[in-house]
Amino acid sequence: MMTKLIERFLLLWLILLSLAAFYWPYIEIDFDPFNHRWLLPYLIIATMFSVGWMLPVKEVKQVLTKWPVVLGGTAVQFISMPLLACLIGQLLGFEGEQLVGIFLVGCVPGAMASNVLTIVSKGNVSYSVSLTTLATLLSPLAVPVLLRLQASFADPVAAQLLTENAQGASTVYLTAGLKLLKWVVIPVVCGFLLGRLLPQFEKQAKSIGAIIANLSILIIIATVVGSSRDKLGQLESSLLVALLLINLIGYCCGQFGGKLLKLTPGMKRALTLEVGMQNAGLGATLAVELFPTNPSVAIAPAFYTFFCMFTGTILAWYWSGKKTAV
């Protein structure tokens, strides 16, 4: 009953919680329930453990036997998103620090939240986790190369910033790879193994896992809004357009890539969310660490975190009402 109530009105809860998180300071209450980012890792770990418990053995075997489509899906992401960011950033006339920030949005791997939204969308979760894992593990090598390639198409200021700091991205992404193992891979494996040891609780696990996944998405979005509400109120319209275009066209690239790879509907949904939902939170961290004297670089990744979570939730909610063969 609770699962259906959350899923059926997920979009409504999303809007209400986002508004509450944005306008909370106006209530003039000292305690802010929407500004606790330290909660997010624990939410992701709990959710991914539930994901592992819910994974059907058949789905896992399907992904293992079709490993070339994991490589293909990762290639779709690392080709389409950097290219999109480069084209849209240039076409809309961005330069310097803002252009570097947009480039970062395109170069980062898929977001861990895409795994959770794949559950909501009734997509292939094993494929989603595989895509996120491979893309993040490749990032220490791929991101510096992509940033250097983009530097050749940028204005002199942006090109200099990218060239000077591209190599430093490797260290940041090595740390990100360790976080991925702790937050996603290990919890999923542990949940999957426990599910095989206790198969009699499969029905309860699916029900509880679905509730945890939906609630986690709502809490993550509310926390993202609450922790960046000051910046959201100052968003420039041109940057808003650029980020939304990258996000929405990214979903289209995921769908098109899924057709080229001849994926099942469930795997196609997973790839679509993975491509469009970049790990912009990690991109913002990258911007702060690599460009400490250039704060404007972090603006685009910070805003993209909210936009991709919001649009990804809407897309997952739409798909959740449609049956699919995983």
Describe this structure in words.
By secondary structure, this protein is mainly α. The protein has a single domain, classed as Na+/H+ antiporter like fold (Up-down Bundle), CATH 1.20.1530. 78% of the residues lie in helices and 0% in strands. The chain is built from 16 helices and no strands. Helix 5 packs antiparallel against helix 6 (96-107), helix 5 packs across helix 8 (125-151) and helix 5 packs antiparallel against helix 13 (237-260). It starts with a helix and ends in a 6-residue tail after the last helix. 49% of the residues are buried.
Radius of gyration: 19 Å
CATH topology value: Na+/H+ antiporter like fold
Strand content: under 5%
Model regions low in confidence, pLDDT < 50 over at least 5 residues: none
The second-level CATH architecture is Up-down Bundle
Instruction: Tell me the total number of β-strands.
Output: 0
Topology order in helix (H) and strand (E) letters:
HHHHHHHHHHHHHHHH
What profile does the largest beta sheet have?
none
Assembly type of the shown chains? single chain
- The amount of helix comes to over 70%
Distance between the termini: 24 Å
CATH class: Mainly Alpha
Average pLDDT, rounded to a whole number, is 80
When the domains are counted, the total is 1
Number of H/I helices: 16
- What is the structural class? mainly alpha
Categorize the overall geometry.
Answer: globular
